Amino acid sequence: MSQPDLFAPADAGRPAAFPPGLTHTDALITPDEERALIGHIDAQPLTPFRFQGWLGKRLTHSFGWRYDFDNGDFDAAEPIPDWLAPVKARAAAFAGLPDAALVQCLLIRYDPGAGIGWHRDRPVFGDVIGVSLGVPAVLRLRRRRDRGFDRAALPLAPRSVYHLGGEARRDWEHSIAEMDVTRWSITFRTLR
Ligand SMILES: O=C(O)CCC(=O)C(=O)O
After folding, report:
1. Closest alpha carbon to 189 in 105, 76, 83
2. Residue of 153, 163, 173 whose CA lies nearest to 5
3. What pLDDT does residue 6 have?
4. Which domains does the chain have, with CATH numbers?
5. How far is CA 175 from the centre of its chain?
6. Which of 34, 111, 143, 190 is the S-S candidate for 126 at Cβ 3.0 to 4.6 Å?
7. Is the C-alpha dihedral spanning 52, 46, 179, 139 positive or negative?
8. Angle at the Cα of 12 from the Cα atoms of 8 and 18, rounded to 5 degrees
9. Confidence at residue 23, expressed as pLDDT on a 0 to 100 scale
10. How much is the average pLDDT of 89-111?
11. Can you give the pLDDT at residue 18?
């Protein structure tokens, strides 16, 4: 497990400490497992992310619980399927959480041109554990200060996993820039 890049560029050249509560490790799964997971994700009924009538470019599918960004509804969804069980167990162990606590799962496919803008996950969710698939990406983080933002950037290798807990989850926003090539992610969440 690593706490990469203790310092990253910030607005006005001010360095920002890497957020406490963010941990990361490479190689959570093997390349064969990654290929199988990508195949499963592509076989799901992925739909464009919707936000208050606006249609995003990334494609998503939820298991366990679904938060509807169009109307704020939060409802039970189809149970997390068996093909996700091994990666969920490893993600939970990595984060030091009980497997049973990861009750929500979001699949995302970012085709070229798709990204995810600055946000904090909805307050109904607790810890967030993300598995990154396909190609390298960068998880950008920022926290608003009196002037500008503190910023950090976590490189995500394919098959790596990150955990947003504590301050990183509570006080920092995160985003991923628009991709040039397709990337997939699996995020697991606890409920508060
Ligand atoms: O694709 C990722 O790793 C990030 C996903 C994310 O930020 C989210 O689902 O809220």
Report:
1. 105
2. 153
3. 44
4. 20-44+84-191 (2.60.120.590)
5. 9
6. 190
7. positive
8. 25
9. 96
10. 98
11. 82
* Global model pTM greater than 0.90: yes
Identify the CA nearest to 113 among candidates 63, 183, 45, 50: 183
pLDDT, one tens digit per residue, over 50-98 is 998 899 999 999 999 999 999 999 999 999 999 999 999 999 999 999 9
Ligand 1 center to residue 117 CA distance, Å? 9
- Check residue 29 and report its DSSP letter: S
Q: For residues 10 and 150, is the Cβ–Cβ distance under 8 A?
A: yes
CA pair distance 81, 29, nearest whole angstrom: 18
Q: Separation of 186 CA from ligand 1 center, angstroms?
A: 8
Ligand 1, CB within 6 Å, residue ranges: 106, 108, 116, 121, 130, 132, 174, 176, 185, 187
Across the range 30-52, mean pLDDT stands at 97
